[in-house]
Amino acid sequence: MRKSIVLITGVNGEIGHGLVRSLHKKGHENLIGIDLSTADDFVKERTLDCLIGDILDRNLLERINAQYEVESIYHMAALLSTRAEFSPVVAHEVNVDGTLNMLHLAMEQAKSRGKAVKFFFPSSIAVYGLPSLGEKSSAGPVKEDDYRHPQTMYGCNKLYCESLGDYYSHYFKRLSANDSKGLVDFRSIRFPGIISAHTLPAGGTSDYAPEMIHAAAKGEHYDCFVSSDARIPFMTMPDAIYAIELIMAAPQQNLSQIVYNVKAFNPSAGEFLSKVKDYYPKTDIDFIVNDSRQSIIDSWPEDVDDAKARSDWGWQATHDLDKAFSDYLIPEIRSRYE
Ligand code: AKB
Q1: Cα 204 to averaged position of ligand 1 atoms, centre (Å)
Q2: Does any domain span residue 83?
Q3: Residue nearest to atom 6 of ligand 1 (CA)
Q4: Is the dihedral of CA 81, 83, 88, 94 positive or negative?
Q5: Residues contacting residue 245 through CB under 8 Å, at least 6 positions apart
Q6: Is residue 72, in this structure, part of any structural domain at all?
């Protein structure tokens, strides 16, 4: 008999860590992680096994398929936006071919179990492409069907994988005699920038906010690579994990779409810095704009409309900007660095 498991790719990443913490805390003793690097003790202690491997390795995925019954997949492995711009072909391979491999595994599992496999896919505000700063500031909260013209390889990857998930959930092999509709239960959230007190992001363009507060907490100088008026949506890591829990627990019949926006707060980089200075008055930060990274941020929306997530699966951010600092970032970062 194959053991029933929950599979998390990119388990050593920022959201992967948060998911392991949350799912284990809820009693999941059957977590299996996959990552290219060795898991740290935190992850090892909370998972059944951590496989060091590549989601592009079909032999590895075949071994998982043979050895386990996969109840659900949290597919977090990806190259983020800045890193993807330096290696667009590798990013396509990891972000798209890797996702296709995971969707194939989900379909194989669902067919052999005769039961749907839930599949969580982290999409991103990077799927949006605002054509100008004027339109960015006048657009208001962007809905899921607006401005889907990504200007980065990462955004292109995420938008296409949303469609792949829709295909696997609703149209897979539609010319074959067997009906596979619903066997893969694909659910996706377009995440804004995410700020964790415990980990630092790697290779994202929204990294400036977490990098700023971690540098301040360590008493280090930081050169912010976007301008002080750069504005995009953010949320805390606990809220990102909370959103994943909510959408994955929602009854399928409640979901009117497969991809959802979520929002919490959208400060400018300058507003974020002034919040940091409220707690770290000696913060030593300059704005040294990297024009090409700035141009990516300029193409992302200032704000998103999350009405559908609220109505379909009860989403409501726990942390606005003030609470993000007072209730989460400052207490947790202080215990980490002081
Ligand atoms: C990135 O900056 O690439 C990510 C994202 C906003 O999806 N953090």
Answers
A1: 5
A2: yes
A3: 193
A4: negative
A5: 22, 26
A6: no
- Model pLDDT, residue 338: 80
Token look-up 């339109």 returns 135
Q: How many angstroms is it from 182 CA to the middle of ligand 1?
A: 29
Which residues make beta-bridge pairs with 5?
70
- Give dist(CA 162, CA 157) in Å, integer: 9
List of the chain residues with pLDDT < 50: none
Number of domains into which the chain is organized:
1
Q: Which of 15, 76, 81, 151 to mutate to test ligand 1, by most ligand atoms within 8 A of the CB atom? A: 81
User: What pLDDT shows up at residue 10?
Assistant: 96
Closest CA to 9 of 67, 78, 109: 78
Whether 278 is covered by a domain: the verdict is yes
In this structure, is residue 252 part of a structural domain?
yes
Find residue 73's DSSP bridge partners.
Answer: 7, 119
> pLDDT by residue (tens digit) across 60-116?
999 999 999 999 999 999 999 999 999 999 999 999 999 999 999 999 999 999 999
Distance 262 CA to ligand 1 centre (A): 14
Taking CA atoms only, the protein residue closest to ligand 1 atom 7 is 124
**Cα 96 to ligand 1 centroid, rounded to whole Å:** 16
Q: Is residue 290 a contact partner of residue 230, using CB atoms and an 8 Å limit?
A: no
Question: Is residue 146 a contact partner of residue 140, using CB atoms and an 8 Å limit?
Answer: no
CATH number of residue 164's parent domain: 3.40.50.720
**Ligand 1 centroid to residue 36 C-alpha, Å:** 20
Report the pocket of ligand 1 as residue ranges, CB < 6 Å. 80-81, 124-126, 154, 191, 193, 201, 204-206
For every residue of 189-212, DSSP letters joined together read EEE-EEE-SS---SS-STTHHHHH
Range of the domain at 294: 78-337
User: What's the CA-to-centroid distance between 289 and ligand 1, angstroms?
Assistant: 18
> Can you count the helices (H) and strands (E) in the chain?
15, 11
Report the nearest-CA residue for atom 1 of ligand 1.
204
